[in-house]
Amino acid sequence: MRRLLFLFFFSLSFLSAAARHIVGRVVDSKNHEDLAGAVVELLNPRDSSVIKSTTTTERQIFGWKVFVYQFDVDNDSTYLLRCSSLGYKTAYRRVTVRMANRVNEQQIDDIALQPDVHTLSEVVVKATKIKMVMRGDTLVYDASALNLSEGSMLDALIRQMPGTTLDNGVIKVNGRTVSSLLIDGRDFFKGDMKKALENLPAFTVDKVKAYDKQGQESRLMGRDMGDKSYVLDVTLKREYKHGLMANADVAGGTNNRYAARLFSMYYTPKERLTLTGSANNVGDTSVPGESGSISSAPDAGGGLTSVRNLGVEYRRDGKTEDNFFTTSLSYASDDNDTRTRTTAQTFLSGGDTYRLDRNATHNVSRQWSADASFGLTPTHQMLGGTLSGAYSRNHGNENGRSGLFGSKPDGDAILDSLFMPDAGARLLKHAINRVKNDNQFHGNSYNASLSLYDRVRLGNNGTDELSFNGSFDYGKTTNDRFAMNRIDYLGTEDRQDHRYQYSQTPDRHLNMEASALYACLLVDDTVGLNSLYLRPSYSIRQSYDNTRYNLYRIDQVEGYREQDYTLGMLPSERQALLAALDNSNSYRSTMHTTQQTAETSLYFSHGDGTAKPQLSFSARLPLEWKREHLGYFRNKDYEKERHTMFFNPTVDLRYQFNDSTGTRYVECSYSTSQRVPELSTLLDIRDDANPLNVTLGNPNLKKARSHNVNLSAALFRLATQRMMNFSLGFHTTHNALASAVVYDKQTGVTTTQQTNVNGNWSVSAGTGFSTPLDKATRWRLQNDLFANFNNSVDLTTVEGVDNQRSKVRSWEVNDQLQLNYQLDTRLNAFAECRVAYHNANSRRRDFQAVDAWDCNLRLGTNVTMPWGLKLSTDITDYRRMGYNDEQMNRSELVWNARLSKKLMHDRLTFMLDAYDILGNLNSTTLVLNEQGRTETWTNSIPRYLMLHVAYKLTLGMAASKKDHVWEGGDL
């Protein structure tokens, strides 16, 4: 059937082609399946010189996938075809081209390649495993070639992949950002990348593929529609693709540390049921001995946090990935207890100020969410939708004490003296104010949303598309807060401002959106692989927001005495509460917004990126009309309406060529965007609910416009296993919206007002490479360098001092160098160095320039020892140099280790972790920038021992096969 469709398709596709050409398939001799990415060369039969070269690439033929090659040839000529593919013997085929008049295409019989059994055996037994190869346009990593710590999750595996970085949840492969993470080509927990990284055990992974995945439009139309996205596709090992698999890890440690994790999955070719769960109070601690995870600064944790998560997902697939049903439920709980001690210095003209602060916060939050999605694929159509809902609630308390001084205090113990009833006159003279506050809060929110889409293929040849989208979103939030704030102004002013406040903040929002798009094919050249699409579209969005903020001054209730009211207490009579409403700081707001967008976009593509290099150009020309109406009451009624028109074009030019030899990628883009201030900020109002932080409106705010230009390039050569990438970016904003701050040094009051500023721009550049250092690829060197220059306008001024706006110029340069050595799966060692340079200067008087370095060196290893023991360890030296404050020029040596042992045929694993063995990890962080210096101590327990017991269960799983490195028809 495939063969008939193949012949029929090419008989139609090339009937009108002017150039004569030959087409054919390369298949496996055993199962006759197509070989994707097989290299086919057209040779001169006389001297075997190469005339042309290509690879077998995917074509869609009435829903069937076939992989073919194609060459333009001369009629009445003889050629020699040479076909090769990794893991197969090279084959030759003599071809004689004879075509009748008006016939432009000749099919070649399938060329069958024999598996190269001898070569494959040698690779497994004698050679270092190849970490990555090209399969067509796909870069494929072999997980078995990487040596990981026991108990590692998917995030550790990705960090070890050559040319790959994982920072703050963002994955980059050779400089390109990954947009989504897939499991066997399918979504995992609705694209929740963090859940997959932290819960999928690394031992279940067979291969990781990086490629440009076709979007839904392209899959419907059977051609490139310009909606590709760069993805990582995790392929599970064969033995975990059918049956039940569970991995449980329970741990307990010193200082009442605990951790538990569960990952369970029932897997069939059509269905997948996944259960994930975790509970711990150790934070986001990495596994000792993991490379690629060196941080910019030592992290002792942010308070004491207990986390509990539970999630279940069910997915059923149809014939294609667009025919599916999936549903998921999740629960998350977070209990955080944070205590801090802060010493801060603010750089100001005419003399700095100093602040001492102690704060304690306890916050408990819980969230429940559920969603369901479906996709259907009737003939020439795709339709689907998602229904989701979420509910959350939180409660907690916060209390703190702070003191502001005009001169540097001698230690933080002065803060205790400042609040003593008999505080000395000399101390009070140097203090500007002292603040004591106690807070209680609780709130809840819920949200429901629905989205639907329908895409239809139109036209006689199915070349056009009509699509509709609709969405609905409704949410409600309520927050209540009790606050006792006691401010004592000292120094030149001697007065008190003690307030007991209660606030209610109910909020509701409703959004509805509908859109229609028509895609029209203007150019369709199947021989030259040229296509041009024109896409006119229209969308309308209606939104409604209703917010109410009621602030009550309980201290103004008749007969109020502070000792009679405990925190959280309200007057017994509602009328008394209503009489205490702070009208000048309470408000209600109703916003109606109508947004209409008419857009025309173009997409041109030449080549397919595999048989021929692909050059693509896309342009979006959206014209947007926005109508906003604000009804606002704050002491009096305000009515404000605004009509705005936006034009925010984007242009993107891309070159891409992926074949069996590697990848080449270049992209250049330009975009511009406009931003208007919120209507409420245009009102001439004053908010002094917090008397130390006053906010003013500004009726003179203007619209801001930003411009962005980006250039990026990436290169990978399979023969040398070498990767290189480069990026360059420029950003500027005209009439940028910024906060102007006026500081009163006599009282410590800051007054903030939004304003427009010009002169903000930045330039960034980055480059990286990854290369093996020896033929066996045991040694690998990787480097990532990024630099950013930022020119910003400083708007912090001091009341009563003749200040002018000043420009601050800052440099940030970061370089991370990694050297990895892997003998085999028994030994892996690495060295990493991360250097960061900070520079900031300004012509402003009294500005303290910053010229400092952070240098972090990390050594680690994973080694299998006698008796089946495995040691994973790392030691990091964090160093700071060049800071103006000598307390910041310090060094911390941090050593972590894990010792593990497997039993019961590798089903049971014991792991002993030791964190901060040397006891040098400091719970104090220091930050120095152009605004000031901040030193913060946070409660944490960075040093502890923990014993893990992990058990792996499999039921009904297929037996594992000792394949060679790249065997498997799924690649």
Write the layout of secondary structure elements.
Layout: H1 2-13, E1 21-28, E2 39-43, E3 50-55, E4 57-61, E5 64-72, E6 77-84, E7 91-97, E8 105-107, E9 111-113, H2 117-126, E10 132-135, E11 138-142, H3 154-160, E12 164-167, E13 170-173, E14 176-177, E15 180-183, E16 186-187, H4 193-199, E17 205-213, H5 216-221, E18 229-236, E19 243-253, E20 258-267, E21 271-280, E22 304-317, E23 324-346, E24 353-376, E25 381-405, H6 414-418, H7 425-430, E26 431-458, E27 464-489, E28 495-525, E29 530-553, H8 574-579, E30 587-606, E31 614-633, E32 637-647, E33 650-659, E34 662-675, E35 686-690, E36 693-696, E37 704-717, E38 722-734, E39 736-743, E40 750-757, E41 760-772, E42 779-794, E43 796-798, E44 806-824, E45 827-842, E46 850-864, E47 869-881, E48 891-903, E49 908-915, E50 924-928, E51 932-938, E52 944-955
